[in-house]
UniProtKB/TrEMBL annotation:
This is alanine--glyoxylate transaminase. The modification N6-(pyridoxal phosphate)lysine is found at residue 198. InterPro entries: Aminotrans_V_dom, PyrdxlP-dep_Trfase, PyrdxlP-dep_Trfase_major, PyrdxlP-dep_Trfase_small, SP_NH2Trfase/AEP_transaminase. GO terms for cellular component: peroxisome. It comes from Amylocarpus encephaloides. It comes from the Eukaryota.
Length: 385
């Protein structure tokens, strides 16, 4: 039984529901951010991230910085690209536009490779683009939260290494880390940025990232200083290295309470094989997707290979409007999100199925949500043809 006050199950694609222990670890008494106890907790947290991202290279570098997922874009754009550098941004929805905006803010030149809504750029077109121009970075949104499209990383990495080996491969994993398989070393990724509030199951407020030794070298070899102060790796790199070596260090005050929460959620996640966690997410996702199909509805991601395992974006029937359906579901105790992709926002809803809502067998969030969707749709006038 949860000790949290009764509340509707938050089944948006982040923030997600919290485990009691994660939430309770935030009520830790105040302690110095440079005291030995906290430094040890922070250091262990960084080491656990290596396991979550599946990297054992000593040169890989985790960062945990107060901020949200957006700060990860700044870390990449301010430190790994220089003004005038070309960046290839693979577009599968809303979040690629924002990442591209972030690159422009720092003076680099993003080129977006777009796919029709619900799909993703295919390897032959990516290969063509990589052969046309020298790109310093290629970015891919692992799961675009606006469309529920999952991008495939292994084949992409092989392509980049073959066609343009100097290009750094950067993954926006804000909506994938913790719910989708990521093999940082095996897939030769150069950077994965994420945040605390989705698959990791921790309250919002932490930018979490992993960079390869190659990415760190790229930063160190910059000709120009980073165009950001707070997001500068120059400022954060020694701090992260010191924390992991259990040495006190200061650049900007971390949030001890959030670090405690992250430490607890990572301890829970790593207490079981990661493969089991990903399999549970796949199973829950299949259940949701089958229910959606059985209802006669379509997903934005039409090809099953492109469908995320931690969320589902569902087109509504013609006669059903988002502002009618979502309050109906809320009354039934589940919170879904409306559409986000600007071209079709009014036409679909998003159902998040990550973290404790799927991994905790004592919870029935997913079954309740499916039931609510079935009855809610019929109450607002939908009948399957
Ligand atoms: C794929 C993706 N990237 C980046 C972000 C930005 O993260 P935040 O809202 O935590 O700043 C989000 C937020 O939902 C996201 O889903």
């Amino acid at each position: 039984m949860s000790s949290q006050p009764p509340h509707p199950a938050l089944l948006i694609p982040g923030p997600i529901e919290f485990d009691d222990a994660v939430l309770q670890s935030m009520s830790h008494y105040s302690e110095s951010h440079v005291g030995p106890a906290f430094v040890s907790t922070f250091g262990d947290t960084l080491s656990m991230l290596r396991k979550l991202f599946q990297t054992s290279h000593a040169s890989s570098q985790p960062f945990v910085i107060s901020g949200s997922g957006t700060l990860g874009w700044d870390l990449v754009a301010a430190n790994l690209a220089e003004p005038g550098d070309d960046v290839l941004v693979l577009h599968t929805g809303y979040f690629a536009d924002s990442f591209a905006d972030c690159f422009e803010t720092y003076g680099s030149r993003p080129t977006q490779l777009k796919a029709p809504i619900g799909s993703r750029p295919q390897l032959p077109e990516i290969e063509k683009a990589l052969k046309e121009k020298k790109y310093k970075l290629l970015t891919v949104t692992h799961v675009d939260t606006s469309t529920g499209v999952l991008s495939e990383l292994k084949g992409l990495s092989e392509l980049v290494r073959r066609v343009s080996p100097e290009t750094l491969l950067i993954v926006d994993g804000v909506c994938s880390v913790g719910s989708e398989e990521i093999e940082f070393d095996k897939w030769q990724l150069d950077g994965v940025i994420t945040a605390s509030q989705k698959g990791i199951g921790c309250p919002a407020g932490l930018s979490i990232s992993m960079f390869s030794g190659r990415a760190i070298e790229t930063f160190k070899n910059r000709k120009t200083p980073p165009g950001s102060y707070f997001a500068s790796m120059k400022n954060w790199l020694p701090i992260m290295q010191n924390y992991e070596a259990k040495k006190p260090s200061y650049f900007a005050t971390p949030s001890p309470q959030l670090i405690h929460a992250l430490n607890t959620s990572l301890t829970q996640i790593l207490s079981k094989p990661l493969s089991e966690r990903f399999a549970i997410h796949r199973e829950a996702s299949q259940k949701v997707k089958k229910a959606v199909t059985d209802l006669g509805l379509r997903q934005l991601a039409s090809d099953s290979a492109d469908q995320a395992n931690g969320m589902t974006a569902i087109y509504l029937p013609e006669n059903v409007k988002v502002p009618e359906l979502l309050p109906n579901l809320f009354k039934k105790g589940v919170v879904f999100a409306g559409g986000l992709h600007k071209d079709i926002a009014a036409k679909y809803i998003r159902f998040g199925h990550m973290g404790v809502s799927v991994t905790d067998s004592n919870r029935d969030d997913i079954d309740r949500a499916i039931k609510a969707l079935e009855t809610g749709l019929s109450e607002v006038g939908y009948q399957k043809a």
